[in-house]
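quick q for whoever's on today - can somebody do inverse folding on this one?? i tried earlier but teh output was garbage lol. tokens:
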């Protein structure tokens, strides 16, 4: 009799467990995450209650993660659990299209009014996607969900705006296919400043091995330039020995192109070699006007500046601006640099010809429905 009862209990428990598994599988199969395409190039998981982002659209279940993404064609989107009963579409801020149905909400944009109908059709297809067509089960989603942070992001290097990509991918090998290089970042938004702690990685074992070696260059940050970084549109902060950093900068083609104008006369390689401590590369705008500040371990390069003056290419010059302070001019570019009495290097690169401000302004407006007024992005590279 006892064995009979035990068997009955086992069958009841087993049946209950099977029903739970089937219920879970059914829910998972129709998850709101199924609406996220499998070809996204950037994915961000957001804890709506802790992130600082403005995610207040009616019907969003903020007890669940909200996912922001970028598709291969550059469209930005958001997918969330929908707890309302209504079905249909609406526009947000005349730039975004929102669709909701069957426990899912998808927002895409920014789009022009003439594109609203096409975007609605695209959202409908996303709402109807099955799990095998979605981001679910992909390495990209697994990596995002492994990052414990109010906001966690994984993005292909190709998804990062060209103006900033070089500074976000310092660890990437120079010959690596950009599609194999990713940024993994933990983020927090506070008082209009997006704080980003990140590193590079790759799903390709060979590229990852090279980046593991490169990342050894970076040391723990002490916060020397934190406040200054927040006063710029974009800042990259690091703590390095310049002798180890220089090879990484030399293999970064985008960064070398940025520094090429200065390197014609100013020996930036020697300046970088002299760094030993915290270093900040800061952009005021999208025109690539840059400020560099760094703690120096030595200042021997100063004695070479007399030679730099003599070796300036035609149409350029280096002129004294005071004690241990100089101005390099070439075409529409100016580079004002100095070494302070406490061994800090300060360099300011500016261009008379403008062109990047409109790009930055439009990019910030694009995401403002979620971020509010975004004053600065501060990216800390840590080991």
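ok took a stab at it. sequence:
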């Amino acid at each position: 009799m006892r064995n009979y009862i035990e068997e009955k209990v086992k069958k009841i428990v087993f049946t209950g467990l099977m029903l739970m598994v089937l219920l879970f599988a059914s829910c998972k199969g129709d998850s709101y995450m199924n609406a996220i395409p499998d070809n996204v190039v950037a994915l961000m998981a957001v804890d709506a209650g802790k992130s600082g982002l403005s995610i207040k659209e009616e019907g969003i279940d903020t007890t669940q993660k909200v996912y922001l993404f970028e598709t291969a064609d550059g469209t930005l989107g958001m997918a969330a659990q929908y707890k309302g009963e209504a079905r249909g579409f609406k526009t947000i801020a005349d730039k975004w299209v929102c669709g909701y149905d069957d426990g899912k909400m998808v927002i895409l944009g920014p789009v022009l009014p003439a594109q609203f109908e096409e975007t609605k059709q695209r959202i409908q297809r996303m709402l109807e996607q099955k799990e095998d067509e979605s981001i679910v089960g992909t390495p990209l989603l697994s990596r995002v969900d492994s990052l414990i942070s109010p906001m966690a992001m994984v993005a292909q290097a190709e998804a990062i705006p060209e103006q900033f990509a070089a500074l976000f991918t310092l660890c990437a090998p120079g010959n690596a296919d950009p599609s194999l290089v990713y940024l993994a970042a933990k983020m927090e938004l506070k008082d209009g400043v997006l704080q980003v702690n990140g590193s590079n990685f790759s799903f390709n074992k060979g590229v990852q091995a090279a980046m593991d070696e490169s990342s050894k260059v970076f040391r723990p940050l002490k916060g020397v330039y934190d406040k200054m970084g927040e006063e710029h549109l974009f800042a990259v902060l690091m703590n390095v020995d310049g002798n180890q950093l220089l090879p990484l900068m030399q293999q970064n083609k985008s960064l070398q192109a940025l520094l090429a104008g200065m390197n014609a006369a100013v020996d930036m390689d020697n300046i970088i070699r002299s760094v030993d401590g915290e270093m900040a590369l800061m952009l005021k705008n999208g025109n690539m006007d840059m400020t560099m500040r760094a703690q120096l371990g030595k200042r021997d390069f100063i004695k070479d500046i007399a030679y730099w003056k003599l070796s300036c290419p035609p149409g350029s010059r280096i002129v004294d601006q005071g004690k241990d302070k100089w101005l390099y001019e070439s075409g529409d570019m100016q580079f004002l640099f100095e070494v302070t009495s406490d061994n800090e290097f300060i360099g300011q690169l500016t261009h008379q010809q403008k062109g990047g401000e409109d790009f930055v302004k439009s990019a910030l407006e694009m995401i403002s429905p979620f971020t509010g007024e975004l004053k600065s992005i501060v990216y800390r590279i840590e080991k």
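fwiw Residues 266 and 305 are 8 Å apart (CA to CA). also The first strand starts at residue 42 and ends at 46. so keep that in mind when u check it
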